[in-house]
Amino acid sequence: INPWDAEQILAPQLITELSGINKGIAGFLAKYGVIYCGDMKKLPISVLAKRYGNPGRRIWLMAQGKDPENVQTNVKPPKTMGHGKTMPPETKDKRLILTYLQHMSEKVALRLRKHHFRSSYFFIGLKTPQGWLTIKAKTQHATDDGKVIFSVCQQFIDEGWQGQGVWQVQVTALNLQTGQQADLFDAQFSSSQRDNLNHAIDNINQKFGEFTIAPSRLLGRSAMPNVIAPSWKPNGHRKTI
Fold it and tell me: How many distinct structural domains can be found in the chain?
């Protein structure tokens, strides 16, 4: 799409087709008659800026095919990798919360393996009406295994969650490492079998679709579609949903 054609092409598209605009923002815009991207020019930028700050200004520009930032061709090496997902409001079903957390754990693990990273430090978060309930936890060894990451989530739920309603979950690998090798003399840590299994599963899922093979709990995982983040890039570690 040529830059000078962007506004015309976007004009008939629903505002919800833009990355970062969900039902909440769409509902706010609808009150001002903004349903399609082409409607945005009728709304003063100050209305969105007052309600949402700088992200509001960016949405106002984005709907008109405008972007004040230059194209960034160089992507810095990642310091963290994470995935989060919104849940049905006030979810208190422990099994469902664990399903979402395992889903995110496996997605984080897949990205770590794909880009040859491991981590031994993880952020786990639950968004509740009282705010975020979080923990930063270490694993014994740096890992790219969803099973290990999910075990941290399970411990967090068992020890840190007290039945509050949950709106969103987040799993993030911190302090990424490359080339991390297991201690060959540590009898309690033998990862080669798990590594082989994970890579075999990755190859199958790459061929037949995401989570064609997955932990049994994920057979009932969220049916909500993946979302492209504003930081998405066409290649590298940010090419993810």
Answer: 2
CA distance 173 to 195: 18
How many angstroms separate the CA atoms of 174 and 138, rounded? 10
> What value, to the nearest 5°, has the Cα angle with vertex 185 and ends 184 and 188?
95
For 51, the domain range is 3-63
Which is more confident, 28 or 226?
28
Question: Taking a C-beta distance cutoff of 8 angstroms, is the pair 158, 109 a contact?
Answer: no
51 domain-assigned: yes
Nearest to 128 by CA among 97, 150, 151, 152: 97
3-state SS class at 88: strand
Determine how β-strand 81-91 pairs with β-strand 166-174: antiparallel
C-alpha of 189 from chain center: 29
Structure tokens at 60: 């106002």
Q: Is residue 233 part of a domain?
A: no
Residue recorded with tokens 């405008």: 66
- The answer to the question of residue 146 being in a domain is yes
In a domain, 226, yes or no: no
Q: For 150-205, what is each residue's pLDDT tens digit? A: 999 999 999 999 999 999 999 999 999 986 554 444 444 456 788 889 989 999 98
At 115, the amino acid letter reads H
pLDDT tens digit string along 203-217?
998 888 888 888 888
Decide: pTM greater than 0.70. no
